[in-house]
Amino acid sequence: MQIIFRNAEAGERIVMASEGDTLMHVALANDIIGIPGDCGGQCACGTCHVYVDPAWVERVGRVEPGSTEETMIFGAPVDARPNSRLACQVNLIAIHDGLIVEIPEGQ
Ligand code: FES
After folding, report:
1. What is the CATH number for 48?
2. Which pLDDT band holds residue 10 (cuts at 50, 70, 90)?
3. Looking at the 3D structure of the chain, how many domains does it have?
4. Which residues, in sequence order, are CB contacts of 51 under 8 Å at separation 6+?
């Protein structure tokens, strides 16, 4: 499947991913700028914050209220939005083929 990462500074990258990958691992494997994933996917650093394209929010799902993911998103130094997710918490499945995410500026 294809995943599209958009970054205000680096532009757009289209990369290949497999079902079962996390969005964060796909970003790291493809040297996507702006997703350092400092904690290795443990939902503990907030450095894999992305904004899911509005057209994809329902398919990806929103952050669960009261979850660790929500705490990390609101504690991150970038703006939290209703379409914010942590890339390490997004497990890719077939319906995510073509997914578009934006990387917050300054991350
Ligand atoms: Fe650290 Fe996602 S990689 S919270």
Report:
1. 3.10.20.30
2. confident
3. 1
4. 81, 83, 84, 85, 101, 102, 103, 104
